[in-house]
Design goal:
Layout: H1 6-29, H2 36-39, H3 58-74, H4 77-82, H5 84-87, H6 89-112
């Protein structure tokens, strides 16, 4: 039974060997001539002034994750709408519970201040 997966195993092995070979060849054969100009940050042809490193607030990531979370959960509404007539009251109650949980989660993150841009 495991013989059926031999082709996949060989494919994965070839991919890993090729990736390791490409990395090793690049490290061994590639030119290394760093200079001040090459290490300077490039931005639209303008000379950089000051440090190019800037801290980004974590709030941006939290807002993005919350958006993805609620956006993906809304995707569950489409299959529910498709089978609503088949399951009748069970579909309605299950989606009411689902939307209730989403509403509670939304109120919780709103009260915690996770949606504030300050």
């Amino acid at each position: 039974m495991l013989i059926e997966y031999l082709a996949i195993l060989i494919y994965i092995a070839i991919a890993v060997v090729f990736a390791l070979f490409a990395i090793a060849a690049s490290a061994l054969l590639g030119q290394r001539k760093p200079s001040h100009v090459k290490r300077a940050p490039y931005e639209c042809g303008m000379t950089a002034v000051g440090s190019s490193f800037r801290r980004i607030p974590v709030k941006y990531y939290i807002i993005a994750m919350l958006f993805l979370l609620f956006d993906i959960e809304v995707v569950f509404l489409y299959p529910w709408a498709v089978v609503f007539k088949q399951f009748k009251i069970f579909a309605f109650v299950s989606m009411a519970v689902f939307i209730g949980i989403l509403l509670i989660a939304y109120i919780y993150i709103w009260k915690k201040g996770a949606l504030e841009w300050e």
